[in-house]
Design goal:
eight-stranded mixed sheet; homodimer; 2 domains; alpha/beta; N-(1-d-carboxylethyl)-l-norvaline Dehydrogenase, domain 2; Rossmann fold; globular
């Protein structure tokens, strides 16, 4: 039913290619563009291989060839955005690159066409101010890879139209992602702030010699992460006291306040990073990193399939 | 092969009963005691029901009746610890209660018998100093429920023998838990420090009106939590840069340092807690909390079964 509607994917590295799959499997025609000829040449091969993985994990039952056929690769940005109602932009993350592509998109798209940037940290106000259609631009930040991890953060610039946010959120839900709406731009958005405080604390515990890297990892992978793979921190604590979240807060907020480091940790120190890298490389040589990433993605896709079967997806 | 070796479970509420299941399903005879007659009367019924859940999730294929038959309930602490080589203590978490039960255990156990306390926050040095066998006491902190979430934190007091820690860690591995060793006592141990910083940030984001409670939860449940259900934060970032953890740190440590709040957040404020409780209660009335907990445990056990099938357990 979406076959007659088109979406452009601009910037088609790992993130952009993942987006192409997301939209194509939901039935949209996807028009992909990347400035690099090498990247353009690899898009369809990558999409075919990734689709195979999705089918094996039981995540796609639609005709693979039909999904692939919905993705077309274009040699110019202007051609890619022809006739689309939405552009997902995933170019290299610098203010310069984001500004340049936003201005180029701004002149190429028609009125009312929405543009979501995959930016993981730079807010849209830093690169869309000069666009005449800036009310239609917002951050639409996925977790890598977007075709496996469904959450997306939608972050409006001060000049983004609320109705543009509504339409993007509706599109994301329709294609099977889980949109999270931020009311304003903040450093790191929500997801990386949550990841950041946990990482900062993990580094500080490791620096203080409290536990090994592997043991700190185990407290998440075999502890907190089990619940967090299907419920967030608020629902978790809501279920962990007889009277719910208020009861939990009454019992434990002072304990959690007492654990805060004063002053907050400095950036992870060089010497500690070297020590951590040694521990990780003893566990996993650098040459095996990409195999392990493939292992992770295979596990991720089975986990997503499991969550779907259990009715735990968004 | 463990049938001739016994373990005592002292304090048999939800945590202690979970421990009884952990040890009994691994083949140990479990001698359970609780000061409350009502609690004692409920242990075997709870264990039978929970075993049924484990069987349905494909987590136990051993004879259920044989597992149940390994749990005996005793009317005194002295009787429960007769002939055991390990005691898992899970009484109410106050310094007074922990001190009283530790002193009672200290006189009742033979030399070399190990005692692990399920304490989630109070370190062993606050309640075992006066014990003559204090070298054999340590914190063995599970996540609730211990028969589903495998991680345990082993935290020695300054006077705990290193060999006692080694023996407890070996026992935990043998019964299918994942032991994490702390080198020293710190407030909140590792697991609750990691949970604490994430909760503090989540509350602050909510207080600032950046996103709704449900949306903050979604960034974990449909985002970060997917990876974290099978790999910790260090392995996660090690896989997220071409050159591994060092490369990731070089690229992103300044960004993460820039997200730290200065000063650190105050304890979650009353007004914010009330607002959060209203949102949660609109989602889930207080009367439905316990049904939702049963739902969570059913999902948890299926998740654990899934992780087992995928070779992702410790």
């Amino acid at each position: 039913m979406n076959k007659n509607r088109s979406i452009a994917v601009v910037g088609a590295g790992l993130v952009g290619s993942g987006w192409a799959l997301v939209f194509a499997r939901a039935g949209y025609s996807v028009r992909a563009y990347d400035p690099s000829e090498t990247v353009r040449a690899g898009i369809l091969t990558w999409a075919r291989d990734s689709l195979n993985d999705l089918v094996q994990a039981g995540l796609v039952d639609d005709d693979q060839l039909a999904i692939l056929a919905r993705i077309s690769v274009h040699e110019t940005l202007a051609e890619a955005v022809e006739g689309v109602f939405y552009v997902q932009e995933s170019v290299f993350e610098t203010v310069e690159a984001k500004t340049a592509v936003s201005l180029e998109l701004d002149t190429a798209i028609g009125e009312g066409v929405l543009v979501g940037s995959s930016s993981s940290g730079i807010p849209a106000s830093q690169f869309t101010e000069a666009c005449k259609n800036r009310a239609c631009f917002a951050i639409v930040h996925p977790v890598n890879p977007p075709h496996l991890v469904p959450v997306v953060e939608i972050v409006p610039a001060p000049w983004t139209e609320p109705s543009a946010v509504d339409r993007i959120a509706a599109l994301m839900e329709e294609v099977g992602q889980v949109p999270v709406r931020l009311t304003q731009e903040i450093n790191g958005f929500v997801l990386n702030r949550l990841q950041g405080v946990l990482l900062n604390e993990a580094w500080a515990l490791y620096e203080d010699g409290i536990a090994s890297l592997a043991d700190i990892d185990a407290t998440i992978a075999h502890g907190l992460g089990l619940r967090w793979s299907f419920m967030g921190p608020f629902e978790t604590i809501d279920l962990n006291a007889p009277g719910g979240i208020e009861d939990y807060a009454a019992r434990l907020r002072d304990l959690y306040a007492s654990m805060v480091r004063t002053p907050p940790p400095e950036p992870w120190p060089d010497a500690v990073i070297s020590r951590a890298a040694e521990e990780r490389r003893a566990e996993l040589p650098l040459a095996d990193l990409s195999d392990r990433r493939a292992w992770r993605d295979a596990r991720l896709s089975r986990l997503v399939a499991f969550k779907k079967n259990q009715g735990l997806m968004g």
